[in-house]
Amino acid sequence: MVAPQKTPRAIVTQLNDALRKTLAVPDLGRRFNERGIDVTGGTPEAATDFLKKENERWAKLVKERGMRAE
After folding, report:
1. If we measure between CA atoms, which residue out of 52, 38, 42 comes closest to residue 12?
2. Among 6, 42, 62, 68, who pairs with 46 as Cys (CB 3.0-4.6 Å)?
3. Cα–Cα distance, 53 to 37 (Å, whole number)
4. Cα–Cα distance between 28 and 20 in angstroms, integer?
5. What is the pLDDT of residue 61?
6. What torsion, rounded to 10 degrees, do the Cα atoms 3, 19, 38, 25 define?
7. What backbone torsions phi and psi does residue 38 show, to the nearest 5 degrees?
8. Cα distance between residue 37 and residue 54, in whole Å
9. Nearest-angstrom CA–CA distance, 56 and 63
10. What gap in Å lies between CA 17 and CA 67, rounded to an integer?
11. pTM to 2 decimals?
12. What is the per-residue pLDDT for 18?
């Protein structure tokens, strides 16, 4: 789950807490896993770091391969 960059910290914390509680429901996690979805929860900062690293990784691949959107 993501929110706009300037979302107030209190809202981000509230959303993160609700999402973590939801993801802790065993049956829900099992259903995600059955569909090949890895469920993880963490801090908003960890999510930001993950997304930054993924963006860098995929941008490098796109550049190396000369890919373009059509």
Report:
1. 42
2. 42
3. 19
4. 12
5. 94
6. -170
7. -80, 125
8. 17
9. 11
10. 38
11. 0.68
12. 93
Tokens of 53: 């690293």
Q: Provide the residue type at 40 as one letter.
A: T
Task: State the pLDDT at residue 58.
Answer: 95
Tokens for 19, please give them: 């999402």
Please write the tens of the pLDDT for every residue from 12-60. 999 999 988 988 888 888 898 899 988 877 899 998 999 999 999 999 9
Q: What's the one-letter identity of residue 66?
A: G
**Residue 70 confidence class, pLDDT cut points 50, 70, 90:** confident
